[in-house]
Each structure stands twice: as C-alpha cells, then as structure tokens.
Amino acid sequence: MDLRIQQLTHLHAAYAECRMIRQRVFIDEQQVPVELEWDEADKTAIHLLASVDGQPAACARVLTDGHIGRMAVLAQWRGKGVGEALLQQAVQICRQLKVSHARLSAQTHAIAFYARAGFVVCSAPYLDANIMHVDMQLELV
Questions:
Q1: How far apart are CA 112 and CA 89, in angstroms?
Q2: Helices (H), 27-126
Q3: What does the pLDDT average to over 23-44?
Q4: DSSP letter string over 64-87?
C-alpha cells in the first residue's frame, strides 16, 4: 500500500478530492446538512489529502489555532491505518504551528480512535449536526 499525504490550500486542484471525500462521508453517509459542512475556515485551513496507490482515501484540515477537523476516511480505507497516518500528520502540523494543544471535536463513536493517539476528552457530550460529539485535546508542550 503506497500511502501519501499532501498538504494543500483550498486553491490547489487536489482540494476537489478533499471536497469529494467530505461530501461522501459527512453529507451522504452521515446526513450532515450541506450548509454546515462548508464554511469560511476552509479558505485559511491547511488541508490534508491522503491517497492510497494514487486514489483519494481520506482528508482532514488543520486551522492555525491548532484545531483539527473535517477528518474523513472513505469506507473502503477505514481500519487500514490511513486515518492514523492522517491524524499523525495533522498533529505534526499543530506542532509546527507552535500551539500548546491540538484540539478537535470527535464524534463519540471515534473517541477510542483519537484516544489511541493520546487525545483526552475535555468536554461533556454535545450534539453537532445531529451527531453526538465531545471535545478532545492533546498536549503538545
């Protein structure tokens, strides 16, 4: 498996593949309303696109304040290490941004995934886009 992760801006041609992944995972699979998925933060975020053997597999974005979000892995690549590699890259970007903590909003079914990477729950559960979430953070300093 040839896994590659690119860093992109929203102006890069490959950003369309990030949008396709988010469309399939969040809007189509999880029924997130379209108006909640796309926001102004996409214009300033560092976008990550994971490809396996040249095919888009997963995406995420990192905001300059250390928030990791919009992490999505296409169904056929789940459980194969793609998400873990993508999260490690996102955390590395947070370190480069010199923030004290990497932060994210995790769907509750994914808490164990993020916990394996060292993230800890730091909020009560809450509803976002009709899906239960918790805030999680990873201390970087």
A1: 18
A2: 34-37, 82-96, 111-116
A3: 96
A4: TTSEEEEEEE-GGGTTTTHHHHHH
Residue whose tokens read 């994210």: 104
- Calculate the CA dihedral of residues 104, 108, 109, 114 and round it to 10 degrees: 30
Q: What's the pTM value of the predicted model, to 2 decimals?
A: 0.96
Token code pair at residue 58 = 């997963």
What is the pLDDT at residue 120?
A: 98
Task: Give the CA distances from residue 9 to residues 15, 76, 120, 124, in Å, rounded to whole numbers and listed in that order.
Answer: 7, 25, 29, 32
pLDDT of residue 141: 84
pLDDT at 63: 98
The encoded tokens of residue 116 equal 């394996």
Looking at residue 95, what is its pLDDT?
97
Instruction: Give the pairing of strands 101-107 and 67-73.
Output: parallel
